[in-house]
Structures are given as C-alpha cells and as structure tokens.
From TrEMBL:
One of its GO terms (molecular function) is unfolded protein binding. ATP binds at residues 40, 44, 86, 99, 105-107, 128-133, 180, 355. It comes from Acinetobacter gerneri DSM 14967 = CIP 107464 = MTCC 9824. This is Chaperone protein HtpG. Keywords: ATP-binding, Chaperone, Cytoplasm, Nucleotide-binding, Stress response.
Length: 643
C-alpha cells in the first residue's frame, strides 16, 4: 500500500461524549490503584475466549486449527509496551468502532453520577459499569488494538489507535492470528509494569482463578537468528519462544472446597462482580441427584444502586459444563434473592439453552429451589450464630437487603415461615431493628393472643401513631413497620409459628383477655352516650368516611383513622398513586375518643361542622397524610380559633 492510500484508509472517529468524559477521568483521577488495568484487560480477553467457545458450538470453523485458547502477556522494555493478546472471538472493524468508541450500557450515566472526586473510591468504581477497557489509559499514553474476528480472512484485520483524548483512528490491517492484541504504550511514570515479577504478582493477585491459561514468555535468551550481517558476531539476544502458564487456570468453582482459601473465594467474587468490598458470606456446593450442578453463591456486603428498579439484574452467571452461557440468569434465583451473585455450572442442560428454554426446564426449577434453600440456610446460620463476626455480618445483610427478602413473603409461599424467621423489627419498646418475631413472642404478655404490628410511612410516624396509645398505656409491645414493602408483604402473612398477626391500624382492635370486663362495659356506655354525636358526625363527614365509631384505643388523641378489614391502608394508597397506579377509592373508618375534651365539645356545638372536619383532617395528618383541601382546613381552624 502506498503512503497515500494508507492514509486514505485510516479513518478518524470521535469518541462518544460520555467516553471522552470517562477518559478524562481515567487519566486524571483514577491512578490511585493503577494495577487494576491488567485485571480488566485480562478479564476482557477471557470474555472474548468465552464468546468463542460459545459461538464455536455452532461455528466449529471459528477455531481455525487453533483450539487452545489462552491469554498472553508480553513485555517489551525497548518499546516500553505491555501487550495482552488473546485468541478469542476478536473484533470486526465495526465492532472495534462501536465497542471501543462508545459506551452502550445505561449504567454508565450512573457511574458518572456516582463519581465523587475522591480518587480512591472512584478507582473502586471503575469496571463496575463496563468501563474496563478504558482503564488501560491509567498507565498508557497510547493504546493500539489489533484484532481479527474469528472466521474472517487475514486481510480483514483491524487496527484501532487512540491517545485517550477526543478521538481514535481505525484502519484495516493484515492479521494472521485470530483474536485481539491490546498494546499499551506505557507512560514514563508506569514503567514498573515492564518488570516480569511485578506483572506476575499482579496476575496472581487478581486473575489466578481465570479458567484460561495466562502465559508469559520464559526468561530464556538466545542469539537472534534473524539478525544477520553487521551483528552476526556476539549478536543481539532475544527471548526464546517458550511460554509458561502463570495462573492456576482452572475455574475456581470446579476445585475442591478444601483446596480453596478464603482469599481466593473473595478475589473470585471481586472479579466476578467488580465489587470492591468482600462478600459477607458464600455457599459452594456440588449437588448430585436428579440434576447435577455446582453452585457458588455470594451474599454481597452492599446493595447495587438499582436493586429496587426494574433494571435490577439477577447476579447469577450460568455455565454448562464449564462453558459460559449467559449473565444474569434470572431463572436460577427467585426475584427476592436478586442481590445474590455467583455462578451455577450445570452438567445436564444443553449448551444451546436459551432464556426461553430455561423458563420451562425442570432442571432449572430444581436448581432454583436448591439455590434458594442454600441461601436461606446460609442466612439462618448467620442469624443464629454465636460468633460475633457472623452476627455483625447478619446485621449488615439485613440493613442492605432486609426489605428485599420481605418480597419473598408474597412470592415464595413454600419458604414463608423461613423468611419470617429472618426478619428483624423495631418495636414500640426498642428502636433498634433487632427484634425477631420469636423474640417478640417470648416477650408477649400473659393473655396476649396476637402479634401486634403497625405500618406507617416512617418509623417515627409508626411509633407516634395514635393507634398505639392504648397499647402503650397497657404496656403491650407493638412491632413497627415502615418499609415500603411491609404492608404489601404482610398481606400474605396471617400468622407466625401458630400465633395470629394483627395490624392494629386495620379493623377493630381486639385485645382479647388483655381488656377487662370493666373496660368493655365502659366502652358500651360511651357508645350509647355518644350515639347522637356519632350519627351527626357520620352525616357531616359522609363524603370522607365509611363509618364513625367510638373507641377505647385512644388515650391522648381525639380521633384516628382505621382501615376497614381487607382494604388498602392510606399509606399503601399513597404509594400506589405515586407509582402511577389506579387505586380503587376507599374510605377510612373514623374512631373517636369519648374521653377527649375536643370530642366532648362536639356535643351540642354551634360549630359542629368545622369541628368535625378539623378532627377528621387532624387524624389524616397524624398518620402522615395531608388534608384533602388544606386551604379549607386552615380556614376552619382559624374560624374555631377566633370564636
Ligand atoms: P465490558 O467488558 O464490561 O463489556 P469493557 O470496557 O471492558 O466492558 O469492554 C468493552 C467492549 O470491548 C467489550 O464488551 C468487548 O465487546 C470489546 N472488547 C474489549 N476487549 C476485547 C477483547 N480482548 N476481545 C474482543 N472484544 C473485546
Ligand atoms: Mg471488561
């Protein structure tokens, strides 16, 4: 190719705006942990080999008589380059432009917004959102990528070059060997990565478990036979073409538990998830029976930012007989355990299994049940453990994922009781979220027949809810629930360990034997005495309430709202409306406290209508809502104040 035409064949491209931004960040602030670039590039090489294995099932010709997949890391002190080569799937020219010039993943915006400027934590974030390749620019002033996609002609190779600023160049090249070479032209402050011992150390630290052999050239030197002429005598020395494998090169989960150290488990997890923090616990088992599989499941120490969104992905990678099949295999874990990360390797599923097939497979169902059981066992073990570290870990787990596993109450009936046992609550007598249902039961009063709980928008609102006044007066503990999911989830729970569970803000309170005969009599008398007031109130508040009645549950408040049995609470209605869902209109019951001066004042009042509406609106406010017509509420209050 002449100089001229070579130039014409070179195309300049600009990076997508986000990439340019990211590159700026990578080069300017992410240098506190520079060695991770090697982990990221080796992980990409390994992904490329996984892809070749997968595609090779249907395209055996992709192997091109070069079936032994490997990654090679070579160092060139003269050129100041470190090259990471793989004979994986490779990139077409278009793929190089698309995949190395843009960030397709929606998570990247997230990544950007999480960056704090604190270099250390930013470095920890790198890779989490698929920015791995660009980490090369932490140590390189220029990166050259040479690649050829499997199955293409040697002439259809591609070279991609960038200095890590605004743009990159792409040209067609000849490349005989399949796969990708990533050539990093090191910056002067990164020359330590030309030392073989240093590079080996980093590979052992981060990439030992990669199932692919990672090879480096042996330090054996010989005279350069190619160099002839002037240097023939005592000629130039070059390394022999002998390579040694420097990692263990077997998939970690295939090894025996007893041969795996804690550190290796942790390092594997970090590689798998790009999480910088160690996991809280893990379960590693080989299961034989109707279906044979290996599971290695981790409980992370932190929830991912999108855990409560629709984008949240299941964290299980599926392998079939060591061949990588797919990420986020959501059929292998129930939705309420979507935070679990790990690997399942099945011996029975077909290699060409699709997501649709997974949905119907009986093997998959068995694996999912097995995974669920193991995780619940693991959590149960942590919860019950006497070990301080385990207890600490259970607390961390619960703070991060407690509200996620509650979804299981509605999703997984067969494990409901086991999930209930894992739950921890604040109560009216203990602000800390540490009380289990079993603890509560053990503290129940003589004669108490139910586990009482209240749901509200916040723990504070729950704690100060008027509905709790009588319980407090009688010294009866009430469980406080304020997670968004609580009320929905508790709909599915009628009892725990044989004891009924009762929401005290729903229906009439039945304290059973805890209420003595005298109190019951007093209530009946009050109901009789207030009959005309109740009738007048029902009339005045016809459009707002379903019913008005006298109650003994209140001590300090004049009134409270109660949700009729079987209907949605005001909190749940608010939540559903916020989420844009249509909710059937339901009216609450207004319960009034016959001992309260304001209620007594109602009898024969000149301003009955104002007083009635104010009492009602205050009850709405007390449980975290807003009066339907705030302006009218203010007007009525003022009119009462002035009289
Ligand atoms: P991720 O690995 O999360 O997809 P990266 O930034 O690490 O993100 O890589 C971006 C993309 O570049 C990869 O998805 C892949 O398509 C391509 N790529 C990177 N390295 C290689 C390689 N060695 N062989 C083939 N494709 C690669
Ligand atoms: Mg990557």
């Amino acid at each position: 190719m002449s100089e001229q035409s070579a130039q014409q064949a070179t195309q300049k491209h600009s990076f997508q705006a986000e990439v340019a931004q990211l590159l700026h960040l990578v080069t300017h602030s992410l240098y506190s942990n520079p060695e991770i670039f090697l982990r990221e590039l080796i992980s990409n090489a390994s992904d490329a080999c996984d892809k070749l294995r997968f595609e090779g099932i249907n395209h055996p010709d992709f192997y091109e008589n070069d079936p032994n997949l490997h990654v090679r890391v070579s160092l060139d002190k003269e050129q100041k380059t470190i090259t990471i080569s793989d004979n994986g799937i490779g990139l077409t020219a278009q793929e190089a432009i698309d995949n190395l010039g843009t960030i397709a993943k929606s998570g990247t915006k997230d990544f950007m917004s999480k960056l704090t400027g604190d270099q250390k934590s930013d470095a920890q974030l790198i890779g989490q959102f698929g920015v791995g390749f660009y980490s090369g620019f932490i140590v390189a002033e220029k990166i050259t990528v040479e690649s050829r996609h499997a199955g293409l002609d040697a002439a259809e190779g591609v070279r991609w070059i960038s200095g890590g600023t605004g743009d990159f160049e792409v040209e067609q090249i000849n490349k005989a060997s399949r796969g990708t070479d990533i050539i990093l032209h090191l910056r002067d402050d990164a020359l330590e990565y030309l030392e073989p011992w240093k590079v080996k150390q980093i590979i052992n630290k981060y990439s030992d478990h990669i199932s692919l052999p990672i090879e480096m050239q042996k330090e054996v030197w010989q005279e350069d036979e190619a160099a002839e002429g002037e240097q023939a005598q005592g000629g130039k020395m070059v390394k022999t073409d002998e390579w040694e494998v420097i990692n263990s090169a077997s998939a970690l989960w295939t090894r025996n538990k007893s041969e795996i150290t804690e550190e290796q488990y942790v390092e594997f997890y970090k590689n798998l998830t790009h999480d910088f923090e160690a996991p809280l616990a893990w379960a590693h088992n080989h299961v034989e029976g109707n279906t044979e599989y290996t599971q290695l499941l981790y409980i992370p120490s932190k929830a991912s930012g999108d855990i409560f969104t629709r984008e949240a992905k299941a964290g299980i990678k599926l392998y079939v007989k060591r061949v990588f099949i797919m990420d986020d295999a959501d059929n292998l874990i129930p939705n309420y355990l979507r935070f679990i990360q790990g690997v399942v390797d099945s011996a029975d599923l077909p290699l060409n299994v699709s997501r649709e097939l997974l949905q119907e497979s009986r093997d998959v169902k068995t694996i999912r049940e097995g995974n669920t059981r193991r995780i619940l066992n693991l959590l149960d073990g942590l919860a019950k453990s006497e070990d301080e570290k385990d207890q600490e870990n259970f607390k961390k787990f619960y703070a991060e994922f407690g509200s996620v596993i509650k979804e299981g109450l509605g999703e997984d009936f067969s494990n409901r009781e086991r999930i209930l046992k894992l739950l921890r609550f604040a109560t009216s007598t203990n602000d800390e979220i540490v009380t289990s249902l079993a603890d509560y039961k053990a503290r129940m009063k003589d004669g108490q027949k139910a586990i009482y709980y209240v749901t509200a928008d916040s723990l504070n609102a729950a704690k100060n809810s008027p509905q709790l006044e009588l319980f407090k007066k009688k010294g009866i503990e009430v469980i406080l629930m304020a997670d968004r999911v609580d009320e929905w989830a508790m709909n599915f729970v009628q009892e725990f360990d044989g004891t009924p569970m009762q929401n005290v803000s729903k229906g009439a309170v039945d304290l059973g034997d805890l209420q003595d005969a005298e109190e019951k009599k007093a209530l009946e008398a009050a109901a009789e005495q207030f009959k005309p007031v109740v009738e007048q109130l029902s009339d005045a508040l016809k459009s707002k309430t379903k019913e008005v009645r006298v109650t003994t549950r209140l001590v300090d408040s004049p009134a409270c709202l109660v949700t009729p049995e079987g209907e949605l609470s005001p909190q749940l209605v608010r939540m559903l409306k916020q989420a844009g869902q249509a909710v059937p209109d339901s009216k609450p019951i207004l319960e009034i406290n016959p001992d309260h001066p304001l209620v007594k004042k109602l009898q024969g009042s000149q301003q009955f209508d104002d007083l009635a509406n104010v009492i009602f609106d205050q009850a709405v406010i007390a449980e975290g809502g807003l009066p339907e017509d705030p302006a009218e509420y203010v007007k009525r209050i003022n009119s009462l104040l002035l009289k």
